């Protein structure tokens, strides 16, 4: 009987230890290749042209918090990269704030994609400013315990807020201890909260103590429906733009090719630098893409001073493509027009 109890106890300890190794969160994240996803399943232009032979595809990377087990496996399994938490999340940013920031980056990329694509197609859009969006609340700041990530600030001290510059203007020359009223939208509620201004953590400036971004909406005719709530970050912006434009025009700009790519879409049509491009190249090759668009960004002296080994997205993508010996074409683009010009120059795929 005692021997059976010992065996049972040992088994219980073993299960508990295995669970600890598999589930205990470490101060690291693991990044690895994700996959290619046809954008047509996320984007629909009302009465748009969808009878195309080829496809536009966005690329993802997989990111998860490391446990002792997955940390150890990352040194054995291929195409894994360990990142310290501070390389992924901002200071004072918890999981909720991180996820909210990633979703905000995604919604902003969708906004820019619509704005740029409709401009390329010669169609008008209607843009509305809706205050600012709270990304994070700094610990021990004036807003700590009052505001939350995801809040939308509509007014500050009675002044309607439309741009991020409005925030700086209304807070300029305010003093420590001064109270101001904020009108905020939280979910379906509109609230008024009073904050007592304090010095920002580690600074001489007085402020509310939040990180924030502009908050705009865009109305288009025809209407564009986008469903990509499970994908965070701004890096799908270029491909969203190309897909919307492809549905707005009659011709099939894919020419029958499976087109993938990555890059932030800025409102002026510039394609911005992103992270994890090497893993996206690996995933695109694995999913049999023909073409991969990548930002042709410029490495500044300041970036080299911070990291002497830094490469442009295009250099990194080209190096990875050579390493995996892919037949996929790696095409550098500085603007969305560069991508369109390249596609226009292609013969139809046989």
From TrEMBL:
The keyword Hydrolase applies. Keywords: Hydrolase, Protease, Serine protease. The keyword Protease applies. Its EC number is 3.4.21.53. One of its GO terms (biological process) is protein catabolic process. Signal peptide: none annotated. The active site is at residues 235, 280. Residues 230-346 form the Lon proteolytic domain. Residues 102-188 form the PDZ domain. One of its GO terms (molecular function) is ATP binding. Transmembrane segments: none annotated. It catalyses: Hydrolysis of proteins in presence of ATP. NCBIfam families: SepM_fam_S16. Belongs to the peptidase S16 family. PANTHER family: ATP DEPENDENT LON PROTEASE FAMILY MEMBER. This is endopeptidase La.
